[in-house]
Design brief:
It is built from 24 helices and no strands. It is mostly helical. It has a domain at about 1-5 and about 25-145: Tetratricopeptide repeat domain (Serine Threonine Protein Phosphatase 5, Tetratricopeptide repeat), CATH 1.25.40.10. The protein starts with about 30 loop residues before the first helix and ends in a 17-residue tail after the last helix.
């Protein structure tokens, strides 16, 4: 969750691939290429103007946004040498130092930015979270009151004030605030959970069973709340939330293919992480997570990065954690480390669904390595022969390698369920058959498939 003033050049959020055939939430590859081009442009500009303050700030913000934390720290450090009183530089450098787990440095940076009216609320909130993580709930509450009071109507500040008041034993204050706020912010799951913890009389939709059913319908709701508790160092609250036995949710009440809380590997990884933060062993949870299915699991938060790193520190042979970490890194265009994680995962367990599809697509579209990509797609077809994305992308890789249309057509004909071949694959097969002069065969393929019109193109019809 971004806090405080937005950067001057706000970056678009990375969106998930829409075809569903790739597990990684790594976004449209054109957008990935734009991020890479932008980073290269920043680097090229700094090579020419290494002392440019605006360029150092912009590149540092970009690096921080893309989780290139070490690089961001260096860039913002150079900018700070030029403009030591720039609150924006201190603010972003504080975020970076927090990500690098340099808590003392982060606190100094936030304190330097705290005097600026533009950054006072944002840095005050982050300072409060640092204090809370150091078990100074009283100091954290004082910081919130000074910088981000509940009267400012900032929901995150209200939520954290309630949780910290409860954890500090100020129950009357917590009850009063949550009773006042839960009706004003009825969509805040955090406040509704706090109301249950504090024994506030539940209103419609806020009883414990109703909340649990709502949480079970989308496990990201659970993780969002866990991440907020973790920012406050309230790992016991997080662990309780992660360890609940949630009700089963009907298929029509959740996303297609979504995991139930009991089978979601990210919840299990977080459970192990929280146990470690409480001085216990997280090995059993990490082991359980490693054996859960990975379809439709999309890590996308910076907190996920640290959780997966912790899991790999406990078990470097966890193929699932390597795969998910690779997907997470790739979503931020940290391409080479992402590919390295995927290759490690493949060496341990090549049967992870969509692993070769994701790896091959990255090699084909970003690294421009069609030969290596083709090898990955071929391997993927052995693992999941019914994944149409593998055939489509292998067709493109073979085209780039100069393979004849007849060879490409025969490859696509290996799809194991011809009557249910997706329209895009039918189109690619028909195009390849026509390219090598096999019109009758192409027409026969079309005769057995309904082909929806494709926007901007003429309908695909039989040809003589």
């Amino acid at each position: 969750m971004h806090v405080g003033p937005q950067p001057e050049h706000k970056l678009p959020d990375v969106k998930a691939w829409s075809d569903g055939d790739f597990v990684s939430s790594s976004g449209d590859h054109e957008l990935q290429g734009e991020y890479i081009d932008a980073w290269n442009t920043y680097q090229s500009g700094l090579a020419k103007f290494p002392a440019s303050l605006p360029l150092l700030k912009a590149t540092g913000r970009f690096a921080a946004n893309q989780w290139r934390f070490e690089e961001a720290a260096k860039l913002l450090g150079k900018a700070e040498e030029i403009a030591p009183s720039d609150a924006e530089i201190h603010y972003y450098r504080g975020i970076v130092e927090t990500a690098l787990d340099h808590r003392a440095n982060a606190r100094s940076e936030f304190e330097a930015a705290h005097g600026s009216p533009a950054f006072r609320s944002a840095t005050g909130l982050l300072l409060a979270e640092l204090l809370a993580q150091q078990h100074d709930a009283a100091g954290a509450l004082k910081m919130l009151e000074d910088s981000c009071p509940v009267s400012a109507d900032d929901l995150r500040c209200i939520e954290e004030t309630v949780a910290l008041s409860r954890s500090a034993g100020e129950l009357d204050r917590a009850k009063s605030l949550v009773a006042e706020s839960v009706s004003r912010y009825p969509t805040s799951l955090f406040l509704r959970i706090e109301a249950v913890k504090l024994g506030i009389q539940a209103t419609s939709g806020t009883s414990a069973p109703e909340i649990d059913k709502h949480l079970a319908a989308d496990t990201s709701r659970i993780l969002n709340i866990v991440q907020e508790y973790n920012r406050l160092g309230l790992y016991t609250d997080s662990l309780e939330l992660l360890s609940r036995t949630y009700p089963n949710v009907a298929a029509e009440e959740t996303e297609p293919g979504a995991s139930q809380p009991s089978t979601d590997p990210m919840l299990a990884y977080y459970r192990g992480f929280c146990r470690e933060k409480l001085g216990k062993s997280g090995v059993s949870d990490y082991t359980a997570a490693a054996g859960m299915r990975l379809l439709y699991v999309f890590p996308n938060d910076s907190d996920d990065f640290f959780v997966l790193r912790a899991a790999l520190a406990a078990n470097p042979s966890d193929a699932s954690a390597h795969f998910l970490l690779g997907s997470l890194l790739f979503s931020k265009t940290i391409v080479d480390p992402a590919l390295a994680e995927w290759r490690i995962a493949e060496s341990i367990n090549p049967k992870i669904p969509s692993l070769q599809a994701s790896l091959g697509r990255a090699l084909l579209e970003l690294k421009k390595q069609p030969k290596d990509a083709a090898a990955e797609f071929e391997l993927g077809m052995q693992v999941e022969p019914d994944n149409p994305a593998l055939y489509l992308k292998l067709n493109e890789a073979m085209r780039q390698l100069g393979r004849p249309a007849a060879q490409r057509a025969e490859m696509m004909k290996r799809f194991p369920d011809p009557p249910n071949m997706p329209p895009d694959l039918v189109r690619a097969l028909v195009d390849a058959l026509r390219e090598c002069g096999r019109n009758d065969e192409a027409n026969a393929v079309l005769a057995h498939h309904f082909m929806p019109a494709k926007e901007g193109e003429a309908p695909l019809q039989p040809q003589k």
